Amino acid sequence: MTDTTDDIAEEISFQAFDDDCKLLGNLLNEVLQREVGNGFMEKVERVRILAQSASNMRMAGVEDMAELVEKQLASEISKMTLEEALTLARAFSHYLNLMGIAETHHRVRKQRNLALLSRSCDDVFDKLLQGGVSPDELYDAVCKQEVEIVLTAHPTQINRRTLQYKHIRIAHLLDYNDRSDLSVEDREMLIEDLVREITSIWQTDELRRHKPTPVDEARAGLNIVEQSLWKAVPHYLRRVSTALKKHTGKPLPLTCTPIKFGSWMGGDRDGNPNVTSKVTKDVSLLSRWMAIDLYIREMDSLRFELSMNRCSDRLSRVAHDILEQETSSEDRHESWNQSLSKSQLKLQASALPTQLPHRADQPACTECNDDGSQYPRIEFPGTDHKPLNRQDNQSSRSGSSDRDSSLNPCILSNGSSAASTNGQSSVAARSASFNSTQVLAQRKLFTESQIGRSSFQKLLEPRPPQQSGIAPYRIVLENVKEKLVKTRRRLELLLEDLPCEYDPWDYYETSDQLLEPLLLCYESLQSCGSGVLADGRLADLIRRVSTFGMVLMKLDLRQESARHAEALDAITNYLDMGSYSEWDEEKKLEFLTRELKGKRPLVPQSIEVPSDVKEVLDTFRVAAELGSDSLGAYVISMASNATDVLAVELLQKDARLAVSGELGRPCPGGTLRVVPLFETVKDLRGAGSVIRKLLFIDWYRDHIIKNHNGHQEVMVGYSDSGKDAGRFTAAWELYKAQEDVVSACNEYGIKVTLFHGRGGSIGRGGGPTYLAIQSQPPGSVMGTLRSTEQGEMVQAKFGLPQTAVRQLEIYTTAVLIATLRPPLPPREEKWRNLMEEISNISCQNYRSIVYENPDFLAYFHEATPQAELGFLNIGSRPTRRKSSKGIGHLRAIPWVFAWTQTRFVLPAWLGVGAGLRGVCEKGHTEDLKAIYKEWPFFQCTIDLIEMVLGKADIPIAKHYDEVLVSESRRELGSDLRKELLATEKFVLVVSGHEKLSANNRSLRRLIESRLPYLNPINMLQVEILKRLRCDDDNHKLRDALLITINGIAAGMRNTG
């Protein structure tokens, strides 16, 4: 029961939230009055008041009157012109986005104002120690924790990145507005800034006009790192370290990172033909480039900070050695310049030909193309962005001649560069005749430009004093920066497929190489009594390097199991070994095991295969070239047999043998972890037996122990299992599958890491992170966890540094509790039997409606905007795995997305009511209440379903049916609405709550505050769908529909 004090605090907190909403709403009104006029604003206000009145009446229980007001509202919307409908949709959509910004800020402010934040490191460490965990056990568990958050490009992020950035700017202004020391002038300027941002948002097209490419999606992920996680990670690790020191007496080790990050953006090729081997390679190199670029920026600030002279003897020697190397290098350079000057004099004295060959003035590497290079510039599909053109104030200040030469370079084979001085000389260079005077003039201009650039660089960055012991940290860090700049330049050459012959001593390949000089500086500062300086910016940078490494986020690869089988089939047919696809499981197993034990490559270099098979083989080749230093896991979707895993192991081994033979040395890094993804209910039920069969094979077990430190990773999918059998059955089957996999690994003494493929919505395994982790089976979270964060949830959880710090802390504390104090299993076998019975009834009910009712598919297409979602351009992959029109081949995201738009959210609850009702009617109501109170898994499942039922809206769903669904199918809609009411009834019976979300009043209040804007957009969407289905080529109607989809997604705060 909530304490009265909490009620008062909640009211105070909500007052500030309401104030923010009013401020942003009033400013948007001002902007709209200026943009669309007072006349239309009166219509907007009338629609809002009608919606607010109907909403208030429903909350007060005056249903009949509310229905009349809603009919009046729908009637007025139906009379609007297309232009008015479009403008109204945009206005209400922006209202909801601004409320979302205020809501996020409200949560940040609430956390900031609490003395002891619930589920924080300080709070959880204290409770664990009070619960009997020893300080050493706690310290050891935190230091050994391995959590990886994997960002994916699943197409559920509606807002354009441009608008996301503008929303972040508004969030920062709201944060600034909370300051109590602002003068009247400051506050007036702040209001002006807010007006500017809102005006800019209104005048910006909110729709993506082109589908993003996989590289666009990858850049969006990298931007999350740059704008938020880069700042959040050091803050989060400081918080963990401070709490550890407080409760155990020891801080977190400097290079210890409980959380790391992975990515699927540019690596997930399952059902997405746009993700090719070249895209994967480019994205991996781009990620490395971004990491190095961020480190270079940090290096400038760090060099400025560490200006002191006092240092350890070891650091002094290193600084002295660096100065000596630089001096000897300068002497050699000066000697070379003198000899060059003599040779140039001789050259000028000698006779020059009156006519040079075509393009003789250009470097040899530019002979083939008219565009200036035989090596193609990297072209990211669908975008003209080039990483080499990236400039900002910091990088332009921190750059060197290497950096300068990266802007429009003509690269020589030895890595040097020559640039055309201007457009005219480039044209002249292509003419058939080019006299010697022009050649000499161009060389003179080029030399002068280089001299000027070098002199200017010296003015910006004066050389450190040439004396040992003076500013030693700056000398060492300058050397680090120079190597980083060369590393970045090398990556630019690799990205452009240009020759790259850097000495390995001149660039950084691994994070250990970069950490070495940084740790040397840290240890020197500590030994000289300057620990307070060591633990500042330098410690933050060391922690960033330890967390992000040289790639920011390691890239996972994912492909469907059938594609690997097709590749092996093509190979065995080519080698006259028979057809792999026609062999039974045992014969496949025998063949794969035999080949894995062999030492020769299986695939000949001369093999000719279809293009789709070649793409699979090319992907494994890229994986061999990049290795585990750049890549994470290889995930096999739709895995169902042991041979699915061994097939990937064989293709990976074969590619590494081929690449190693060509390089004449071992491939970089180690082999990738091969991770089976069990998704359907059938595959989940067989997951444990697949792992047992794999670990029974001597070669595989030895491989796991030798190459992966005795760790088996297994992924479980929430999306397809939910679409396959309904949310309740999927949750239970996932629970049992994890138990079985853990048991299988324990039998062979192998550690297991479970990888959770969770979506944003409840229907796809989403929900509060803490609840989800705390409800896992005992023993399934033993200090290790991987989990996906998808689409709109990436921005919601990690878009701001403050929210990112909180999310990282919740991951850490939830995994820690699940490790040291695992959740309880079912107390008695009867509980499991009841779960099995609920699941069976639920699954049967769900499938009888979704897959067996002949009218359901047509009803789904009529009652939802599913068919129109493809116009959104929010993802690079198709909405279906195959061309079939059935539910089975529809991806889980558009399935959930479409029902979320109509506010029916059917995938999250269908079948649950039938299951609970069936068991309650047999007299087990009290048993279910006891299970809810005592078993975290069951409680979490029911709470999440209750949460999503609180977002469902029967009158709105009914309105979709009445206007859009054929009369013959409306009875199906009516039956489904009755089923929703029955589900609400039995969920409340089990939970013991009086009404939905009774245990989360904040959520209920936030949902209610959105309704005056959300309900009209739904009614507007119904009207637009009705018109569009009679005029499906009307692009303006389509735009209006897409804007309503944006608005509803903003109001529901999740999509798919």
Can you put this structure into words, describing what you see?
- The chain is mainly alpha-helical and 1056 residues long.
- Helix content is 63%, strand content 5%.
- Strands 1-2-3-4-5-6-7-8 form an 8-stranded parallel barrel, surrounded by 6 helices.
- Helix 22 links the parallel strand 4 and strand 5.
- It is globular and about 90 Å long.
- Residues 1-9, 339-436 and 464-469 have low confidence and may be disordered.
Mind summarizing the main beta sheet?
8 strands, parallel, barrel
CA-based gyration radius: 32 Å
Structural class computed from helices and strand pairing: mainly alpha
Count of discrete alpha- or pi-helical segments spanning 4 or more residues: 40
Strand order of the largest sheet: 1-2-3-4-5-6-7-8
E-strand count? 8
Please state roughly what percent of the residues sit in beta strands, choosing from under 5%, 5-15%, 15-25%, 25-35%, 35-45% or over 45%: 5-15%
EC number: 4.1.1.31
Active site: 154, 723
Cofactor: Mg(2+)
Family: Belongs to the PEPCase type 1 family.
